[in-house]
Each structure stands twice: as structure tokens, then as C-alpha cells.
Amino acid sequence: MSILHPNIATLRAIYEDLSRIEHYGHEDMVLHTAQRHASNQDCIYGKVAVVEKMQALILESGRTLTMNVDSIIANDYFGAALGHIRARRGDDHVGMPFCGLWRFHEGRIVEHWENAYDITALDAFLAGEIGPGTTWVRR
Length: 139
Prior knowledge:
Blueprint: H1 6-16, H2 21-24, E1 25-32, E2 43-45, H3 47-60, E3 66-74, E4 78-89, E5 92-105, E6 108-113, H4 119-126, E7 137-138
Parallel strand pairs: 1-6
Antiparallel strand pairs: 1-2, 3-4, 4-5, 5-6, 5-7
């Protein structure tokens, strides 16, 4: 029987409930947002600000956001999670692949890179601006 690395357990807990990042993040952690190529909000600094960003994302989705993890790999230094992000808005729903990359120091999260497959479509959906022709939104 193999024992999972503690950082795998940390990532599982966070993806089950994004608000748990508060319990595992270093005070000076850095979040590289998924929107980093499309906005001026490319990095968020400090655990308090990262927690606020996560809470805003949950609220923006009407508390429907889920991140279903397909696989996680981690060691003492890095972690990666692959899965699907999903949210609902009325009868519409969005779902697309994501990849979260994480850097750890002494068991605490010091850096996280968000990656959604089509962040423009996801942001538009969450803002209620469901664009025509996106393959990620279902009605």
C-alpha cells in the first residue's frame, strides 16, 4: 500500500472546497490568474488577497462552481492538478478543462498558476455574457 504525498492531500482538499486555500497558503503566496494574458490583473499577492479572489469567483458563479479533478501529482516542491471546471447560470452551464500548477515550500503553498482552457469563454459566461459559437457552454 502506498501513502500519498501530503501535498496531494492538500490539493485534493482545496479542489473540494476552494475556500480551504486559506488553511494551506503561505502569508506571502502569489496567484498567477488565468486572466494574466488578457488583463492587468495578472498576479495577486498575499494570502488575504488570494482568498478574496477565490471567494469572488465562487460568488460570481452563483456558488455553482465546481472543479472536478481527474488527476493530481505532487512532491515536496510542485503539484499539478488536471480536471474540469464547471458552473451554472440558470439553465445554461459551462464546462472546460483546467490545469492548476502549484509551488510549495515546507508544506505551504507559495505560488499558484490558474489555467482554464478558454478563459475568455469562461469569464464571459460568469459575467452573463454567453457568447455565440462557444463550444464550452451548453443550454
